[in-house]
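Wed. Picked up where I left off yesterday with Response regulator. The coffee machine is broken again, so keeping this brief.
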Amino acid sequence: MPKKILIVDDDPAIVAFLEDLLRDNDYSTCAAYSCAEGLEKVRKEKPDLVLLDMEMPDKGGTMFYVNMRKEGEIKDTPVVVVSGVGPRPPALRKGIPTIEKPVNVSLLLSTVAERIA
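Structure written out below (tokens, as returned):
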């Protein structure tokens, strides 16, 4: 059974790109286009990993991460930040890998593989 990855990003083109890339590499995917939707999906889908954009119109990636870490059943889900944003807030500096946009495909795939091995 393929590992499932939740993509949380408000840009449909980025989501489509990441879904195609991950599916081509034998991962299952699901997507959310806001932090609120992302929290619902992570609770429902129980992904093996979350790819998280930091800059979104609602509460942003930081609030998604902070809220996810408060919930017992999903708090240990690995996260990889995929964002064009510069410095990360303190909540996201503790061992959370960051892939900058535009995405380096080989770096993303190797980081994903390491986090859900």
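Quick read: The chain has a mean pLDDT of 91.
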